[in-house]
TrEMBL record:
Protein name: Protoporphyrinogen oxidase
Top-level taxonomic group: Bacteria
InterPro entries: Amino_oxidase (IPR002937), FAD/NAD-bd_sf (IPR036188), Zeta_carotene_desat/Oxidored (IPR050464)
GO molecular function, one term: oxidoreductase activity
Amine oxidase domain location: 17-360
Amino acid sequence: MSKDLNQKICIVGGGPSGISAAWYLQEKGYKDVTVLERLDRLGGKCNSPVYDGKHYEMGAIMGVPNYDETIKLMKVAGVEADGPKLDRKFYSERTGEEIMGISKEEMPEVKAQVEKLGQLLATKYKGYTDPGYLNVHPDMTETFYDFCMMNEVPLCMKIWINPYTAYGYGYFNLVPAAYVFKYLDFETMMHFVKKELITWADGTQTVWEKLALKLNRHPRMCTKIDKVVRKDDKVYVYTNMGKEEYDTIIFTSPLQDLHLYADTTEEEEHLFSKIKYEDYKVLAATVENYPEISGYIPGNMFESRAGHVMVYYDRWVNNPEQIITFYVLGNPQEKVDEADCKRLILEDAKLFGMNIKDVVMYKSWRYFPHVNSDELKNGWYNKVEGMQGERNTYYAGEVMSFGNIEESVCYSKFVVDRFF
């Protein structure tokens, strides 16, 4: 498309993908960019509500030092990585007692397999960190479990599982390896192992709120889109403020919902109907006997233990009045429902020595939009990428890369650099 810097561009979604896309367009000189957000806040799954004067995380929690694009945007926004230092211990899902994450007996072999995997990623799978999934290596379309077994590095799953499954991204026997490595590339994983993490005192949400203030036009919140019609080389967006005309639209909102309000083509509807997501729940509560440190429960990070606490987050240390946040995955087949998850959280809290006093916040997310191994093998991403620009429409957001901050931002930059 011609680079008409005066074209009217609509971005649907005010999360990291949408806000960063608006900024990258502005940097390139585009003057008429409107971000529409359904909620009364920005940030999407960067959700940092306040309790008793402190910010807590109900969605994204942390980053690592190699979140290069995120850190650049933080500088633009004037935001520092000034949050609490994170630490953790590991606990048994059966007894609640502290355990070793990796036993001393296993450690030499674990190190050898991690080194082997690092070499494979740097050579055979070079390019796996590039934005998106165009021409993904066939091995990476297999589940992460099968990938590790195929490459004879099964113990690597013990390392990768804690920052992956615990934070809502699914089970290794179901999720394609391409997704796992998009988020936890080798360098990122080593930062997690060394506990080299960054957090924000005012929460992840503040990054996007403050970046939005740097835009020429502030995102419009509380905006419900009733209809999107793409015709006559224009895009017509019907909202609670009336009909609006644009030249181009970028969807960063959930693509699986596009058919509910947009004039989707048969191909769009077919492809986006293949998107799956995880049933991820976060419960924040005040507790008696507050823990001294955050806890991971690796034994609960399997499908058979759906609904049980995988991690609890002690954000502000030495503060007995603080909130503790508990994280669980529901069952993909919905055999473990909302009530089961809440009951299991209460039971697990007691196992780890805590009594929940008051539930202060509860969030159930449609988390980590993705497609399964079969769709990945069948070229789902190549097909969607092939539609970019048709009907003046572009697609970004979590499903196009990964449901974490850095990958979402990098993909928005990729789309802007590629097409604008």
